[in-house]
Amino acid sequence: MSFRALFYPRAVAVYGSVSPGKLGNILINHLVQWGFPKVFAVNPKGLGLNHVPGYAKINQISEDIDLAVIASPAATVKEIMTDCGEKGVQAAVIISSGFSEAGNAKGEAEVKEVASRYGIRFIGPNCAGMINTYSNLAPTLQAYPPQGHTAVISQSGAVGGAVMEWAQSHGLGISKFVSYGNGADLNQIEFLRYLKDDEETKVIALYIENIEDGREFMAALKEVTAVKPVVVIKSGRTSTGQRAALSHTGSMAGADAVYDAALKTCGAIRVESLDDLIDLCKGFSYLPRVLGRKVAIVTNSGGPGVMTADKAEELKLNVSESSAELVAELRDFLPAHAGFKNPIDMTVEGTGDNYRRVIEACLKEFDAVLPIFFGPPYLPTMPIAEGILAAFKGNNKPVFSAMETGLHAAESIKYLRDHHLPNFPSCERAIRTMARMAEYEEYKSKVPNKKSVMPEKSKGLLFERGPLLEPDAMKVLEENNIKVPEYRFVTDKSEVAAAALELGYPIVMKVVSPQILHKSDFGGVELNIKNGEEVLAAFDRIARNSEGYDFRGVVLYPMLRGGREVILGLTRDAQFGPVVAFGLGGIYTEVLRDIVLRVAPVDRPGAEEMIRSIRTYPILKGIRGEKPADLEALAETIVNFSRLPFLYPDLAEADLNPVFAFPTGVIVGDVRMVRGNKE
User: Fold this and answer.
1) What are the tens digits of pLDDT across the range 629-665?
2) Mean pLDDT of 560-580
3) Backbone φ and ψ of 72, nearest 5°
4) What's the sign of the alpha-carbon dihedral 606, 610, 611, 612?
5) 421 phi and psi, to 5 degrees?
6) CA distance 340 to 331
7) Rg from Cα positions in the chain
């Protein structure tokens, strides 16, 4: 289907009652009020509304109808879609509820089958409609926003409606709005791909509650973010009902963390509130790109300037001191008692012309400027607004206005908005928007890794012959270029002393049993065994502790010393498939809960970014004279580990804990692999 029938239809038919207060009445009035030229009402009585003609059946309309808007009872929708198909309608917006969201999955499937038969693509059911401000099309229950360059895709009609309501008061222009409801046909994936090439859209705002096909969603998102920014609100951040079961690390990583990882991987910007979403959409819609992190703060009051500088540093923006050349330029027109270093404090004496000249001077050496104005009630704000706007219009770098108080502040803020310079309600929101915009440009500037880390084909099933014992799991790691220590698997006490001598003391001994997963809890691990007498006694203790279980023997390793302990985990997420976790191991795993997730497979730059992302990264880099861990070998281990679930379709979970990262090299200390269903 061409999306033109949906967003630029020649004519629209609205199904539903035209009686006052009914949805059909509201939808027709919206379409007419906002200027769509060809609207027809369709209802059993053939009633029209004002100048809109009414018909009992759509095939009675002589005009070609591209779009049907359906707001009739759920039981009638299947027949309506059949009539639309016979009429040649190409697209539909099904406002009607009472389908899968109400337990009527069968009715929804029947509507989808009819639509598929006739080639009709549809939004909904159970949705709040759509808007295209560039075709005066508004078959929606929501407010009509000003025209602009932000597209809004919302699974929730209420959330999308709130954005439409706020668009006017916040100065945010909208290009397209879609509330897709149950998403039985068209959903966020199709709309993302359409909006990627939509010339009327500069930024996409996305509200999601769940994703059916996580991998396809990620593919679409990556395609879009390579071209334009996507700002996402994902609800359910604190839900504990769903878990990403990363075995040992599962208690630290809920399903929401997987969404975080997926969105970050794809370059989308996740925000927590509608305020942040509106701010970012304003910034991306109206301001030039933020092509660096070097920022100047211009203020008429020291306190707000210092607070903003603190926040900027926290967000990893660079509030560097003004150059000698800039200071000299500023001294020509600012009073001697002004602050010149950055933040640049003009004091309460700062005029509109001062703001203009300071901003223009700062833009010569900074990537972006944040002018702040806190005025007392008697001080006019319009001259300040005019100065800020003049500086903005004369440059091609972003200016983040934060005008908060003063005489006639509301009128001055509206003046900026009317001239397409967004004003942010607070210094903190302005600087946060700037940092996120810089973050997106950094993502775009990265050269994509051309080498695919996805295996061409699987190696087969790991668990074809039953449970995977630790020695077998170690062999799997070794075969996939993940370094493991030398080891010996011993099934009989008579062989244990000779095996220990081959490895060299001191050694570690572990129980091998398909029934004992957490070995330490069963007394199944013996450390720092130093001689033959100790190794025999250790075997006896482990065998005794394993009575009543399927005891297969022990595995011996050299005792590893030094190095930083890290942990790696794998699981299969319901939406996104294989996911890899990384964090510092040992006591840090449980105490600090410092884990980072990424959707697998992970390429080399992604693995390096994972390592840098944990809070305890400085420990790996080396502190107080310690040698750094071998971060290159660690990144390569993450890459190879992340490939395992694609090589072995029946691998559901895996833990490497601990993994020892030495100054030279990385070695896995323990491994656990869990069987799952073959994909």
Assistant:
1) 999 999 999 999 999 999 999 999 999 999 999 999 9
2) 91
3) -115, 170
4) positive
5) -115, 105
6) 8
7) 31
d(CA 215, CA 579): 11
Which CATH number is correct for 564-675, 3.90.1150.10, 3.60.20.10, 3.30.470.20, 3.40.50.300? 3.30.470.20
Separation between Cα atoms, residue 95 and residue 209, nearest integer Å: 19
Question: Which part of the chain is CATH 3.40.50.720?
Answer: 1-126
Q: What beta strand segments (E) does 471-627 contain?
A: 488-490, 507-512, 525-529, 553-558, 564-573, 577-584, 595-599
Half-sphere exposure of 175 (CA within 13 A, CB side): 19
Contact status, residue 97 vs residue 127, Cβ threshold 8 Å: no
pLDDT in tens, 29-71: 999 999 999 999 999 999 999 999 999 999 999 999 999 999 9
Element (H, E) at 174: strand 174-179
Look up the pTM and report it.
Answer: 0.89
Q: Find out whether 167 and 154 touch, Cβ atoms under 8 Å.
A: no
- DSSP lists the bridge partners of residue 123 as 93
Q: Which of 223-227, 238-242, 405-409 has the lowest mean pLDDT?
A: 238-242
pLDDT at 587: 60
Q: Worst-scoring range by mean pLDDT, 44-58, 131-145, 231-245, 410-424? A: 231-245
Question: At CA 389, angle to CA 384 and CA 390, rounded to 5?
Answer: 100
Token output for 507: 């050694």
CB-based contacts of 355, cutoff 8 Å, min separation 6: 298, 346, 371, 373, 384, 387, 388, 391
444-448, 504-508, 520-524: the lowest-pLDDT one = 444-448
Structure-block tokens of residue 631: 């971060």
Residues 6+ apart with CB under 8 A from 640: 480, 481, 482
Query: Are the CB atoms for 368 and 396 separated by under 8 Å?
Result: no
Contacts of 488 (CB under 8 A, 6+ apart): 499, 500, 502, 503, 555, 556
- CATH 3.30.1490.20, the chain: domain bounds: 487-558
Residues 64 and 59: their CA atoms lie apart, in Å, by 10
Is pLDDT at 197 greater than 50 in this prediction?
yes
- Domain(s) of CATH 3.40.50.261: residues in the chain: 142-286, 288-445
Q: Please report where in the chains the tokens 């668990």 appear, as a residue.
A: 463
Burial 516-531 (b: 16+ CB within 10 A, else e): beebeebebbbeebee
The residue among 152, 149, 148 whose CA lies nearest residue 164 is 152
Q: What band does 413 get if pLDDT is binned at 50, 70 and 90?
A: very high
pLDDT of 170: 85
Is the model's pLDDT at 10 over the cut of 90? Answer: yes
DSSP string across 418-431: HTT--B-SSHHHHH
- Burial (0-12, 13-18, 19+ Cβ within 10 Å), 428: middle
Are residues 500 and 535 in contact, defined by beta-carbon separation less than 8 angstroms? Answer: yes
Q: Give domain 142-286's CATH number out of 1.10.760.10, 3.10.20.70, 3.10.350.10, 3.40.50.261.
A: 3.40.50.261
Among the four given CATH numbers 3.40.190.10, 3.40.50.960, 3.90.79.10, 3.40.50.261, the one describing domain 288-445: 3.40.50.261
Encoding tokens for residue 432? 């946060």
Of 599, 585, 578, 581, nearest to 651 (Cα)?
578
Four-CA torsion 453, 458, 464, 468, nearest 10 degrees: -10
Cβ(233)–Cβ(159) under 8 Å? yes
First to last CA, the chain: 32
Kindly tell me if the per-residue pLDDT of 449 is higher than 70. Answer: no
